[in-house]
Amino acid sequence: MEVKKDTKRRVIAYSRFSTKRQEHGDSLERQHAAALRWCTQKGLELDTELTFSDHGRSGFKGHNSKKGALRVLVDMCKEGQIQTGSYILFEAFDRMTRMPIIEAQNLFTELLSTGVVVVTLNNGKEWRHKNLRNISDFLFSVLDLFRGNQESERKSAMLRSAFRAARESGDKWKFASLPGWIGKEGGKKDGAFVVKEELAESVVKVFDLAALGFTSKDIAIRANAENWPIPARLQQTEAWTANMPRRLLLNRAVLGEHEHKQYYNEIEDDEGDVEVEYLSRGKSTGIVVKDYYPRIISDELWAASRVGIKVRGAAPKRDYNKLNFWSGMIFCGTCGAAMHRRQDIKKSGDSIKGTMYCSAKKDGRSNCKPMAMRKFDTTVLSAITTFAASELGNHVGQSSLNEEAEALATLLADAVLRRANVMQAIEKMGFSDAFHERYEALEKEVKELEAKLTATREEAAFAASGSMLDTSFLESVLPHIYSLDSESADIRAALFLKLNRLVDSIIVFPYDLAVVYFRGESHRLTVPLPHKSHVPKPQHKQAELFSTGSVEHAAIKRPVYQSSRFR
């Protein structure tokens, strides 16, 4: 397609500012006024048909010249869509670019080589391609372009230094962004941090449900149903979304921690123009300050929520009502496929019936028998509870785990201190292979201790609620296993957590027997199941082998995806 050549010499003004915040300032107005004054002095008319502006694009990063309006302007000049001899007005070289000198000079030369005249309004100088043949003009342009880049670098370094000093002094007032559940006393800029109790309560509820194994989607559904207030600093929606609980569960500010970040939105030149792009979520500095905010979540609840997150990953298809508390644990004894549950919910009287069926039969790959879930549930639950209390016991108590966690925390603090000392030595004495090896070894030690401490706290959090099933817990659960109210759903979620931590798998021969395998144990429990009718039927041949121990667990062919289950 032929490009239409322009035959009219134009006077075109280009303007730029780096952040959206400057739309409310006078940067654009100031640049336009300078262009009008120059046109008046020269007796020329500013073109209103063609205007080029880059709003919120950085000259320091070169965003305007790579994909902004300036790139469009240069390409139009190169293609002849802007007539040779036209004037392109810039307030100063730093409106065109603040890139490093080589990239900046290349951009300037690229524009001049199209035959247009570049005007820098701050000094009234007109630049043509022939000017670059003059050594003094060439050096002047190089120095001016270099100054723009160095000014951005200098102010960027000054800002980093100021924020570093604020971090080291513990000055909280330089960092304005706060979690949604934290405010400042009296609304003052330098007011003490205070907890917004109503919003903090929503956060605690999120962690409580996560500890029970609820997914982020489940939590959002519950939050919307019960009209929880949204603990967001800038509320952009009136309803909870699945992403909200997910982000809260990853936010260590609930523990009182603050991670310093660089947002690059405070670097301003003398006219108030910001020259570095704004990063809405910030760039991590790796500096974490403990006890920065008021804590609203205990270490125990944080650890319990990690357990819930891991366990729910083992059974991502559990229903919202948590009726399938055996999810991911039961398998068909005949063919080895996973067994699913189909609930028949009758709203009148909240009567729930259901069937356990082999997934292979659903796909037409087998003809395995189904089983009524009510005949399975109470029988197997009672047998597991009795066996766990008498044979397994609670090998590691909460107090022992807490002591272990305290010891690991002490070791971790010591390792972190030694790592900081090595870093200070490197800064003071310079880099060496010995320092590098020592730092790498300490970095590895810190990561290993952090992993052990996290795992131990999770175990302690789970033990706090009684990781083993016992008779009293079972008695409190049984009235709720088929009810549809939210309290019953929470109780079934807690039951699932306990079962999942205790039971590896259950091989089911419908209306015959179930074989229960426990995690990390050599124990195996055989549970006779109620028959479909009152007349006992002959035992399934493979079931008989299982009950006598003639067939090992590994003989059952299990789905491949089960190998990645949480342990």
UniProtKB/TrEMBL annotation:
Is DNA-binding there in the keyword field? yes
Q: Which Gene3D superfamilies match?
A: Putative Large Serine Recombinase, Chain B, Domain 2, Resolvase, N-terminal catalytic domain
Concerning PROSITE patterns, the annotation shows: RECOMBINASES_3
Q: Coiled-coil region(s) at which residues?
A: 432-459
Question: What are the entry keywords?
Answer: Coiled coil, DNA recombination, DNA-binding
Q: Which GO terms describe its molecular function?
A: DNA binding; DNA strand exchange activity
The Resolvase/invertase-type recombinase catalytic domain sits at 10-170
What InterPro entries does this protein's entry cite? DNA_bind_recomb_sf, DNA_bind_recombinase_dom, Resolv_N, Resolvase-like_N_sf, SSR_resolvase, Zn_ribbon_recom_dom
Q: Does the keyword Membrane apply?
A: no
- Tell me the protein's name: Recombinase family protein
